[in-house]
Structure formats: structure tokens, C-alpha cells
Amino acid sequence: MKHPSAWLPVAMSLAGVSLVLAHTALVGGVVHEADEGAPAHLWQLLMAGQVPLVLYFAVAWLPRFPGPALRVLALQAATGLASFASVYFLT
To answer: Is the CA virtual torsion 17, 3, 52, 61 positive or negative?
Structure first.
């Protein structure tokens, strides 16, 4: 977790969860709009932006340190799923 390619995807997923929760709280619940809006686009950029980082981390660290790298990849996957779950259940 010392390298940016390890912790940055986790931070981006947590930022995505925070973005969804903040938008839901500020709007006062789920509001279905005709256009997605800026928060949805920011969330999409956060999720798509972490894919190259995760791939880089897997290619760079998985062959050298498989045990710790798999734990970091599991954490990255868990936070990514939490972000997707927040969108699924709150919108």
C-alpha cells in the first residue's frame, strides 16, 4: 500500500462512494433526472480512471510479490464493488 498504484484506486473508489452519498443527501433522496448530471459523470470518470492503475499494479507487483499484491487487489476490488453498490442501491 506504499505505492500510488496500490492506494490510488482505493481512494478513487471511496471518493466515488462519497460522491454518491453526498449527492443523494444534498438532493434529498433519489431523483430521476432526464440527464445524468455532473456527479454521475464524475463517478464514471473515477471508476474508469482507476482501471489503468489497477492493471499497472497487477502487472508490476503480482509477479514479484504475489501474496501481498493479491491482498491489495482484493481490497481494490472490494472498494470498487462498494462504489458500484452505492450507485445500484441509491439511484
So the answer is: negative
